[in-house]
Amino acid sequence: MKSKFILAIIIIMLLMTACGKKHDNTVKIAQQYGLAYAPIQIMKEKGFLEEALPNNKIEWVKLSNTAAIREAVLADNLDVGFMGIPPFLIALDNGMKWKMMTGLSSCPIGLVTYDPNIKSLKDFAPTDKIALPQPGSIQHILLAMACEKELDKADALDNQLVSMKHPDGFSALFAKQDIKAHFTSPPYLFEELADEDNHMVVSGEEAMGTEFTFIAGACTEDFYKNNQEEYNAIKEAVKKTIEYMENNKEETLDILSDLYQMDKEKVESYINYEGMEYYTDIKGVDEFIDFMVRNNYLEKSYKSEEVIWQ
């Protein structure tokens, strides 16, 4: 697969230049776009990690996709990245020494189109373009799972993918010009489905066939071994934030409403939508690995202790 070859070259080059964490007192944490990252956004706003690590400088960055997170980690510009499980596995498979440290969320996710003639994956014409964050993203792997089930060929639509961050994919779907469908997550998924012209072709749950963690946090072996205080503080801060969200619903809604520039009522309906959950478990790892090995997205299989810090 061309995209995987390119990814492998990038990672190898970065591995050759990476020189390990500088062991200063700065902790850099990256997230992406969407409500699946709400605990990270609340943690930042409440200052829970800064409170736990008063002698550290905490830097928060928002990156457009998991490739940017992987590259930043390898270049020693990031300590912890939050992302989907498949892109984490692809980087591990290409030699990146890291493991997952905590789950963060699961949420509805799906492929949305405005074309009434597209009712299933079989209805996509070869010229129909599909927007998603990038090849190797969780959206891409779930689409490949759905293709394997429905079209008996996991990479059947790979040549029709267009890499776009969620806000751009959202805008492109409504423009109805360059793309025919968008594989996305909340709030973009909810906003797209609220328009009567749009409908979902396939959901992530249908593709996967079981529960799975949508977003998990990962860190390098170097950070895990040499920064145990910071590692434990981040895990505890995630847990504390999720408990805070459960016990302080009004303030949580106020914070998210400001961050997303949405009505409080709309945010409330979104984070209480069926399937929106925030937790620290990591689910679905074996299912992702089995599929990705079977369809050559990974070179080899892994046991749970090889992908999750114990």
UniProtKB/TrEMBL annotation:
PROSITE patterns: PROKAR_LIPOPROTEIN
PANTHER family linked: ABC TRANSPORTER SUBSTRATE-BINDING PROTEIN, ALIPHATIC SULFONATES-BINDING PROTEIN-RELATED
The name this protein goes by in its record: ABC transporter substrate-binding protein
Source organism of the structure: Vallitalea longa
Gene name of the encoded protein: ssuA
